[in-house]
């Protein structure tokens, strides 16, 4: 698994994957009569371009990070260097980082075919660019490019599933180090650091999320933000990290005891297994995402305080199926063969703690095939 | 100083309200993570933004209200002093139905009075396409208002920034100690992330940058501007004795960012020519920091830097000589950037601003020197917070 940050040589033909992804996007643009896409969300830019750009963990305002023009099929990217940029994107199509949004407007004006566009799909918008776009494409109306890309990205190509499997393997490998480090006195944040360090030993430098690496409170409350709390004997520690490999997310959720497992811990695991089996059984092609929530609730267990399911691909994808804390609105599009989903359940018992577990499944013609492989200890 | 997070949030919220009153804005709808944190103090999972779009926090600030409305899927991240009737289930503006729900809930909170101006800092696509038709209020731009409010830091914010910087420096020292031939650059990332959380960071914002620099620009990647190629995404390249390594690490304490950049030579024996680059860098940096005081303009800093460098700009063309520091990373101002000379001339330093000064020296064939220094503008001058030594370049 060496040199995998180069995104080559790991058993995945990335050049073919990039071409296949872009062809799918162009076909959907044609179907929806969209002339150009102007996107900011890094996962959308990654899907279209395959570029490896510097990763940041923040939600910032819309800016034109990547442009795809249907007439030319050309990708134009916000990047000062060709480092990390696939060779099929010529240097002339790169425009440098800027602090002056007016310079991005000038860069968009130079994009061949964008000025003639009638319909432009965007995955967000800022007040500034809303004002400036008429100067770039005077005849264009804007439409929902996120919806377009969401529909294309939903069903995974075999190479995408391979990337997700690699990411899962990295996350599971790193989580083993975390599990071995669990002992009284160790802080939750120390576990996060151990996970990240082991992740980098596989050549991956981007965690998808910082945790949870959290002791479940004895009253059964699940926290998700790792902090200064030191573990004590008898804690049940909820672990649900994820990493990004070539942009693709892989993660796994397990709960491990600190020191002596409390009495009642194995009963918690049995209850978790029952809920998990119920949502996995409901996760079949043709079901709608809210069926998963209904299956969860039908077990009689209260909904988990985090999403019970979400799409997995270039990071977290639709459909997001919120748990007891939301989000409450669930997409209605049915599940399809080829989707990859994370399924998650949590059960609690006052006086003991709780059990969190997450698996990732690939929807096949035969039903959900589990991609996560790490054992449950309890 | 003693850090008081409740006071920090109270003072920030008061500044937001004052800016709204000044600009006659009836309400702010904040969607970007830094602005939500500033106005509402909401902690959330630090994550790839694909996750955050689906599990996002948002804030609605109504003019004259005592507290912000916070929408969040992370109850544990809600400030304890926030009234229960101001804490709400998350919004989901990824979907048309979610925007309809958002509009209904916002109208309800705004009340039935005369519609005013609702300033928004960022839109999802369905928000942009549907919200104007669903709300009685007129939409405006919150991004500029919030950037202005965030510019001058309170004492508690400066304390958070100082702690963040100190944590980052200690983690950086741990990486420097681990630097040796045979290590991969991505191993340095691992050492950094393990150390930074042990040192007390509450989150990490950037894929830490560890770049082995080419001796000549032409030996590096092609660029749009022909300048020194930095900062690139870290790879798993194996280090050799004598490699020149530049770093850029952005980490957080209570979401306040630090932004350390260092220059190292694997084996710790910089050539005399590289030491010359350091010496010139130090002269430039001393001159720039010396010029930082209330009333000085951005252009004063750039002209001092150019003069100390013998007439040419000693910073990267795609970046800046100095930038503001705050929540999640860099903030305005970007001094010496492509915002241009007019911006630099109009930007006047004031007490409470926090700057990162990052000159760069370079000689093709030799390499160059780049370190970031943190400076707070005080009532009568400045205070430098960064404190790492420049060994082994100092002779």
Structural descriptors:
heterodimer; A: 378 residues; alpha+beta; 6-stranded mixed beta sheet; 5-stranded antiparallel beta sheet; 9 helices; 17 strands; 32% helix; elongated; B: 395 residues; Creatine Amidinohydrolase, Chain A, domain 1; Creatine Amidinohydrolase; 2 domains; 18 strands
| Beta strand count of chain A | 17
The helix content of chain A, as a percent range, equals 25-40%
The description of the largest β-sheet of chain A is:
6 strands, mixed
Low-confidence stretches of chain A: none
Count of discrete alpha- or pi-helical segments spanning 4 or more residues of chain A? 9
Give the strand order, joined by hyphens, for the main sheet of chain B. 4-3-2-1-5-6
Q: Which band does the percent of strand residues of chain A land in?
A: 15-25%
Structure description:
The complex is a heterodimer of chains A (378) and B (395). Chain A is an alpha+beta fold. Helix content of chain A is 32%, strand content 22%. Chain A contains nine helices and 17 strands. Chain A has helices spanning 14-31, 42-49, 101-109, 127-136, 145-154, 158-181, 188-201, 265-282, 289-298; strands spanning 36-39, 66-69, 75-78, 94-95, 119-122, 141-144, 207-209, 213-215, 236-239, 242-245, 248-251, 254-257, 309-313, 315-321, 340-349, 353-364, 367-370. In chain A, strands 4-3-2-1-5-6 form a six-stranded mixed β-sheet. In chain A, helix 1 (14-31) crosses helix 5, helix 3 runs parallel beside helix 4 (127-136) and helix 6 (158-181) packs across helix 7. The longest helix of chain A is centred in the middle third of the chain and has 24 residues, at 158-181. Chain B is of the alpha+beta class. Chain B folds into two domains: 5-150, Creatinase/prolidase N-terminal domain (Creatine Amidinohydrolase, Chain A, domain 1), CATH 3.40.350.10; 155-384, Creatine Amidinohydrolase, CATH 3.90.230. Helices cover 35% and strands 20% of the residues of chain B. Chain B has eleven helices and 18 strands. A six-stranded mixed β-sheet of chain B has the order 4-3-2-1-5-6. In chain B, a hairpin with a 2-residue loop joins strand 9 (244-253) and strand 10. Chain B is globular, with a radius of gyration of 23 Å. Chains A and B meet through strand 4, helix 4, strand 6, helix 5 and helix 7 of A and helix 3, helix 4, helix 5, helix 8 and strand 7 of B.
């Amino acid at each position: 698994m060496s040199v995998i940050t180069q995104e080559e040589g790991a058993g995945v033909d990335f050049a073919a994957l990039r071409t296949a992804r872009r062809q799918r996007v162009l076909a959907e643009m044609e179907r929806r009569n969209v002339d150009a896409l102007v996107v900011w969300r890094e996962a959308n830019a990654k899907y279209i371009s395959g570029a490896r750009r510097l990763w940041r963990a923040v939600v910032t305002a819309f800016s034109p990070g990547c442009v795809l023009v249907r007439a030319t099929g050309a990708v134009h990217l916000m990047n000062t260097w060709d480092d990390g940029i696939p060779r099929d994107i010529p240097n002339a199509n790169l425009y440098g980082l800027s602090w002056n949004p007016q310079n991005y407007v000038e860069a968009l004006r130079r994009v061949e075919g964008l000025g003639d566009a009638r319909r432009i799909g965007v995955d967000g918008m800022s007040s500034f660019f809303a004002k400036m776009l008429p100067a770039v494409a005077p005849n264009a109306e804007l439409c929902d490019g996120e919806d377009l890309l969401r529909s294309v990205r939903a069903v995974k190509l075999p190479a995408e599933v391979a990337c997700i499997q690699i990411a899962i393997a990295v996350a599971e490998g790193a989580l083993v180090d975390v599990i071995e480090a669990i002992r009284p006195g160790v802080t939750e944040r120390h576990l996060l650091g151990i996970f990240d360090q082991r992740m980098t030993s596989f050549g991956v430098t981007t965690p998808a999320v910082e945790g949870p690496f959290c002791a479940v409170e004895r009253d059964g409350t699940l926290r998700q933000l790792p902090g200064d709390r030191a573990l004590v004997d008898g804690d049940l520690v909820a672990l649900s990290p994820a990493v990004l490999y070539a942009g693709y997310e892989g993660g796994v959720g397990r709960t491990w005891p600190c020191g002596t497992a409390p009495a009642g811990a194995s009963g918690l695991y049995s209850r978790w297994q029952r809920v998990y089996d119920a949502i996995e059984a409901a996760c079949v092609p043709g079901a709608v995402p809210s069926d998963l929530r209904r299956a969860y609730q039908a077990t009689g267990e209260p909904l988990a305080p985090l999403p019970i399911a979400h799409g997995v691909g270039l990071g977290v994808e639709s459909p997001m199926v919120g748990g007891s804390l939301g989000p409450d609105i669930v997409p209605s599009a049915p599940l399809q063969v080829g989707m990859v989903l994370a399924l998650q359940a949590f059960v609690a018992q006052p006086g003991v703690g709780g059990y969190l577990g997450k698996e990732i499944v690939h929807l096949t013609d035969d039903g959900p095939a589990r991609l996560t492989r790490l054992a449950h200890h309890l | 100083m003693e850090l008081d997070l409740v006071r920090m949030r109270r003072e920030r919220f008061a500044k937001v309200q004052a800016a709204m009153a000044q600009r006659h804005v009836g309400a702010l709808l904040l969607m970007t993570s830094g602005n939500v944190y500033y106005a509402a103090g909401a902690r959330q999972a630090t994550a790839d933004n694909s996750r955050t779009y689906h599990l996002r926090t948002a804030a609605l600030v109504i003019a004259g209200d005592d507290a912000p409305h916070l929408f969040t899927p992370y109850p544990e991240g809600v400030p304890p002093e926030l009234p229960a009737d101001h804490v709400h289930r998350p919004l989901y503006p990824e979907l048309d139905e979610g925007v309809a729900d958002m509009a209904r809930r916002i109208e309800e909170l705004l009340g039935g009075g005369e519609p005013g101006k609702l300033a928004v800092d960022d839109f999802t696509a369905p928000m942009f396409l549907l919200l104007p038709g669903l709300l009685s209020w007129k939409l405006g731009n919150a991004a500029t208002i919030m950037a202005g409010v965030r510019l001058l830091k309170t004492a508690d914010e400066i304390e958070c920034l100082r702690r963040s910087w100190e944590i980052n420096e200690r983690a950086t020292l741990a990486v420097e100690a681990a630097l040796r031939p045979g290590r991969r650059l991505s191993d340095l990332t691992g050492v950094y992330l393990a150390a930074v959380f042990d040192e007390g960071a509450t989150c990490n914002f950037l894929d830490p940058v560890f770049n082995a620099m080419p001796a000549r620009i032409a030996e590096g990647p092609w660029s749009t501007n022909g300048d020194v190629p930095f900062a690139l995404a870290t790879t798993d390249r194996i280090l050799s004795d004598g490699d020149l390594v530049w770093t850029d690490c952005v980490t957080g304490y209570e979401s306040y960012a630090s932004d350390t950049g260092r220059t190292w030579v694997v084996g710790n024996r910089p050539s005399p020519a590289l030491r010359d680059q350091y010496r010139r860098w130090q002269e430039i940096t001393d001159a720039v920091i010396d010029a930082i005081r209330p009333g000085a303009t951005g252009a004063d800093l750039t002209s001092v830097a150019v003069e100390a460098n013998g007439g040419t700009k000693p910073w990267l063309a795609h970046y800046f000589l100095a930038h503001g520091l705050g929540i999640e990373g860099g903030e305005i101002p970007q001094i010496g950037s492509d915002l241009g000379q007019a911006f630099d001339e109009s930007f006047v330093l004031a007490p409470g601003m926090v700057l990162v000064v990052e000159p760069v020296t370079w000689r093709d064939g030799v390499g160059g020197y780049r370190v970031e220094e943190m400076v707070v503008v005080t009532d009568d001058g400045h205070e430098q917070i960064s404190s790492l030594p420049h060994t082994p370049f100092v002779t």
